[in-house]
User: What shape does this take?
Amino acid sequence: MGAGIIGLATAFRLARRGHAVTLFDPAPATGATRAAAGMIAPSAEIAPGEESNYRFQRGAMDAWRTMADEIAAVVGREVAIVQTGTLIVGWDASDRRLIEQFRVVAEEFGAPMRGVTRDEQPQLFEGLTTRITEGLVMDDDGWLDPDEAVTLLMAANEALGVRLVRERVRSARAVDGGVVVESDSGETTANYGIVATGASGLPDGLTVPKSPTVRPVRGVTVRVQSLDRSALPTVRAYVRGRAFYMVSRPGGYCVLGATAEEKPQPLVEVGELQRLLRDGLDIVPELESAPLLEVRNGLRPATTDLRPFFVALEEPGWRWSSGHYRHGVTLAPLAALDALGAIPS
Ligand SMILES: Cc1cc2nc3c(=O)[nH]c(=O)nc-3n(C[C@H](O)[C@H](O)[C@H](O)COP(=O)(O)OP(=O)(O)OC[C@H]3O[C@@H](n4cnc5c(N)ncnc54)[C@H](O)[C@@H]3O)c2cc1C
Assistant: This one.
């Protein structure tokens, strides 16, 4: 249930193992997955108190490379995974102090990093305002294009016989020896069910024994045509205490992100967009004349401890895979492995 990046990757790995899979989603890959920038950035995403997340995510780049090979074996095309690292910079003195705090935490976690200056490596600072003269590079980080990953996963699932039902699951339950979902066209039975509905949570009829619970945290990304920094580290900046990033793809398609609002409405507020663009213009002045291509928004599925989960539900046969918050693209191959472990071959 749910064809975001988590449901698509889960269906893919189960189908590859030989399971017959039916995937329900009224609008596949239009949730958080569509808004995501696609960074696989365990190091740049380090935050105080999130050491276990960092350790877990460190294997994500390799896990994606493995899954990209598996996808290529089915569809003949690989998801491009680019390891350019991340350059972290600060706008003013207080933002640079935030970087210093980040550096202390990253060092505690043992994350590899190096300090860089514009004088020594001017090419790293290409396109950035000249007031930024130093930064930190986390070489382990990288990115993929979630649109490409979704396209190839959908093609692979189709080739493996995954049945995609473009309907919302209204309710679900357990029955003797299996599970049932009710959607617009009626009831479908199966041996097992996995809920991967992101921030939407559980449908009627399913209950979780205790925590976790999921809450939506809205995020907006803006897509523009601008400078091609795709061979250089992804830019992340603190700007007046807020986080800004620019992921640049070959040809100059750039994803600017991202807002983080504790709001459940899937929309874009003017003020939210204005802050993001203002931060972007301060860091990358030539965005001033960049053609605006698209604005996307999505609801990140967040838990109270900010950790993802794969749990058994009260109703036998049902599992719930969610809580991937800011890292669902990064963690999709690992979430799919959880499902392989939970569903007997
Ligand atoms: C602005 C933004 C930027 C981000 N950038 C990154 C990034 O750079 N790197 C990274 O790793 N992560 C990033 N994330 C996080 C990542 O996008 C999410 O963690 C991830 O997409 C969650 O995937 P999901 O499949 O659980 O949820 P979703 O992508 O939201 O998919 C859930 C699906 O379930 C379907 N659904 C809901 N209810 C039902 C129902 N009843 N029946 C059937 N289907 C249903 C929906 O239609 C939807 O397609 C970002 C998120 C946002 C919002």
Notes: The two ends are 20 Å apart (CA to CA).
